[in-house]
Amino acid sequence: xxxxxxxxxxxxxxxxxxxxxxxxxxxxxxxxxxxxxxxxxxxxxxxxxxxxxxxxxxxxxxxxxxxxxxxxxxxxxxxxxxxxxxxxxxxxxxxxxxxxxxxxxxxxxxxxxxxxxxxxxxxxxxxxxxxxxxxxxxxxxxxxxxxxxxxxxxxxxxxxxxxxxxxxxxxxxxxxxxxxxxxxxxxxxxxxxxxxxxxxxxxxxxxxxxxxxxxxxxxxxxxxxxxxxxxxxxxxxxxxxxxxxxxxxxxxxxxxxxxxxxxxxxxxxxxxxxxxxxxxxxxxxxxxxxxxxxxxxxxx
Amino acid sequence: xxxxxxxxxxxxxxxxxxxxxxxxxxxxxxxxxxxxxxxxxxxxxxxxxxxxxxxxxxxxxxxxxxxxxxxxxxxxxxxxxxxxxxxxxxxxxxxxxxxxxxxxxxxxxxxxxxxxxxxxxxxxxxxxxxxxxxxxxxxxxxxxxxxxxxxxxxxxxxxxxxxxxxxxxxxxxxxxxxxxxxxxxxxxxxxxxxxxxxxxxxxxxxxxxxxxxxxxxxxxxxxxxxxxxxxxxxxxxxxxxxxxxxxxxxxxxxxxxxxxxxxxxxxxxxxxxxxxxxxxxxxxxxx
Lengths: 300, 287
Description:
Oligomer: heterodimer
Order of helices and strands of chain B: HHHHHHHHHHHHH
Number of domains of chain B: 2
Strand content of chain B: under 5%
Shape of chain A: globular
CATH superfamily of chain A: MetI-like
Structural class of chain B: mainly alpha
Largest interface: A-B, 88 and 86 residues
CATH class of the largest domain in chain B: Mainly Alpha
Number of strands of chain A: 2
CATH architecture of the largest domain in chain B: Orthogonal Bundle
CATH class of chain A: Mainly Alpha
CATH topology of chain A: MetI-like fold
Order of helices and strands of chain A: HEEHHHHHHHHHHHHH
Shape of chain B: globular
Distance between the termini of chain A: 45 Å
Helix content of chain B: over 70%
CATH superfamily of the largest domain in chain B: MetI-like
């Protein structure tokens, strides 16, 4: 009996905490989307009206599609620039050549910095007149390439993507590296006997054997890309400037729920509907990705 | 064969010239320059005037010129923000480790009906982004009357940190041997006594991992303070940074000094404890 009481005392406080501050808000987030909201006060039940509004009526529909398209682009671009480069760097670090320990610490250093610091830093670097990027281009005779990176529709989102890749590339690098270090030495010795080709070694042996690492970094990148908020908020502003060229679901949701730059247009109903849609999309696709990628993992 | 008659096909590829390891070294060195370069430029710029930053962004400055740093220290609320971040992060970590270890210990060391379900309940929140529940959380905090307090932040961070912590700690506590526990039980020690004196000292390495995994995202978080905190005196460092970055828009030396001072605590701790940081932050992703 005392034992039962003891187990209860251990488990119930943390369980209650998670129930109140994780489970209850997530369930409420779903419920709230079906009500009309008058400022901070909940109004009458309106069924799917909020969903209909953000998906099929203007100007919401265009904004939703625009932001969603940008998230998709961000995901695929970072898949190459962050996870792809991360894999390559992990492969280089895995050789443990002289200096590898230092390079490993260096590649992970930006990861521990706040996105706010990274965002401001790159915003200053990309300043059209005084930023170090354009100053360097002009100084090396490439002045023709100097441009307002964050100020024009064609380059703004890519500038954000590159800043994000710089910030986070160390994470997939070290996850892949840990995966490679777990490959048993016997397998590698056997491969060395069979082939000299680095490409065969990577594509036929290393890549399949780090599949568990790939599952994790792909899934996390997917969730991260569709939750993207801080970096665009700092570098492009809450309106996704210029002309919503950097608008993503995170900014759009924030603006819809809490109001834009001028603080107007706050709408918890439309905001909740957006949150539910983003949430379902992430949960379903992330679940699918994890499921499919798990299937190709090999047990060593 | 003279160089002039050497055709394209005779030339050796990059790989042959440098050797495999040479190519790898070059990739790593270039990458490290790309990673550290921006931070070095930031560090230098914090000691420069506007004119020096615009004319020679790469030059080594006169490090005795600390006017920019003095300005951040005396004219902004930097120190206040730093203390606020320390209070919020410190309390969150203590609570996360306490509650997380309690739950994990209960799940891992005792067989009871529903223990699998309880673990599932905690772990379900692992990848679900709590950000998207911000509207209900905002209303909940308002109803509890704790909007614009540091308590609201601590609560959110504990909620965010518990799933991974319970996951990591349960896995670790399960691997501990039964012998010590059984011996203590034979000697008539009570269950709380066994946990506190026998088992907890063994759990410390996992606590370090779980602590580091939580401390970085909490220290760096910007989203929840943005929603919950309006009072300047309560702002955390990343949030405060946006305030003074907005005030000194034309004084670039001060802006870089602000970025330098804000990033310095994390960078210094990271350099000292890099191995623990890397292990901790990739702990959830590396099986």
